[in-house]
Amino acid sequence: MNIVVCIKQVPDTTEVKLDPKTGTLIRDGVPSIINPDDKAGLEAALRLKDEKGAKVTVVSMGPPQADLALREAMAMGADEAILVTDRAFGGADTWATSTTLAAALKKLSYDLIITGRQAIDGDTAQVGPQIAEHLKLANISYAEEIKVDGDYITVKRQYEDRYDVIKAKLPILITALAELNQPRYMSPGGIFDAYREKEVTVWTLKDLDVNLDHIGLKGSPTKVKKSFTKGAKQAGKVYNVDPLESAEIIVNKMKEKFIL
Amino acid sequence: MSLSEYKGIFVFAEQRDRKVQKVALELIGKGKELAKELQTTVTAVLLGKDMLDEAKKLNYAGADKVIYVDDDALDLYMTEPYVHVLHTIVLEKKPEIVLFGASAIGRDLAPRVSARVHTGLTADCTSLAIAADDDDPAKLNLMMTRPAFGGNIMATIACPNFRPQMATIRPGVMKEAVYSENNELNIEEYKIEIPESCVNVQILETVKIIQEKMNVEDATVLVSGGRGMKGPENYAMLEELADLLGGTISASRAAVDAGWVSKDRQVGQTGKTVRPNLYIACGISGAIQHLAGMEESDLIIAINKDEYAPMFEVADVGIVGDIFKVVPALIDELKKAGRVAKN
Questions:
Q1: Facing B329 at nearest CB: one of A163, A225, A247
Q2: Where are the beta strands (DSSP E) in chain B?
Q3: pLDDT, average across residues B261-267
Q4: pLDDT for the residue numbered B289
Q5: CA of A249, closest CA in chain B: separation in Å?
């Protein structure tokens, strides 16, 4: 079985702090990590490899530094790593990103593609389903459990108030939730191989069959018009009144904010 | 493609268990505001099985028109049959805007539809507005604002050169329009063949998760208790309040360390980061580690007897008072306002 896992290198947004005075982001010293949902997807692929035998290939689109995320993936047990990188791919929205990644995936053989549900820096959850669309594959989002049996996969798909157990035929694309598992650590032998023995294959624009009008900033249907921080939060009003009046104030505020 | 050919606002009316979901009504409400500015109409699109009566509700909720598609393959949500139907409708009807709820279903469906149509999609918007295009003042674009970077920044995004402009909208942030059964019914029962090849997955079972297990991260309303709750027995009143508001309970580290509440309910730096529409902090002083986990909540209400509690600095409404009096009074007031507990 050939499994391809798409991973993204992201800044650890839980480490990002707001400057309380200016309301701007403090990005200095924020570490880069493999996006948590993607890492769970990689772990799921590695477990299938342990259980049934599979070749696991990791693919990442990003700047040259994403090499580090791919080497970490190989140190965890991935067999091959491909970095899709080119200035022409930069500034892409989800449509252009998924078009580029789909072009890379078309060059690989796969029975199963796993992506994370969403990246913690963008939170869109769009690239996985859009890759499936470009490849004309079925997709099952929000996998909490994955089982493969022969040519079929069974996935527990998590929703807000329920889960579905879904069966489908391979090949298919699954988006993984961080809750899927606890990713393993890199092994010492894996680290040695990932940094000394193995290579990260680099694919640039000339390696992919893509339309220049469909990639990068230029090929992105959406355009960021402005971005801003919400600024330091203003304290609200504090009341010191009897319980009944307090309750009325709260209920009125809920109505004002459409919660009631 | 001539962009001006695209007219009207379409809203995907999500259903579960053959019931229209609240977010659909919220999207109709917002759609009507936008339609007024664009001088156009709002059409709700409902996909399901035996739901003609529910379709009427969409007119009552303010949709000028309803497109209803009835098919066995649309009863339970499956990606491909839904994408096939919506894609066909979008190509034929050419709306200028299509809105989806940013629910699990909307966030699976919208990306595929937008990719098939080849247009832009903006996820998890919290505000929508109309603005004239930078280069062509006659062209009106949808300005879609969303949180990014873990909620640390907001970005306003447009899709100037493609139509329809598509967005998923966070549930709970838009206001429903006035619901009236006097609204005129205008339902088109849309016929479409769904090829068997579309049904490429098989749903073996659907299991509903009981309300008590609602994740704190998924809750739109959190009633959170801290050290001021004094003991586990007092969480019953917070449960009742949360129930009335359709939410669940959470806790500060102090309450979890004391063993009053399970660890999976803990909000803060060493617990969960939450961003509900409403966060009610009861007897929580507001240590910086706790604030880090909840300060992005849309509306924060704090009840604490200590008027110097740091929680009041991030609260939209602060009540200096005894939680054991204010919370029961609040429960009474909500019941008077017609709230009914679900459990």
A1: A247
A2: 9-13, 15-16, 19-20, 42-48, 65-70, 97-101, 121-125, 127-132, 140-148, 153-158, 165-169, 187-189, 201-208, 221-225, 248-251, 278-282, 299-304, 317-320
A3: 87
A4: 79
A5: 8
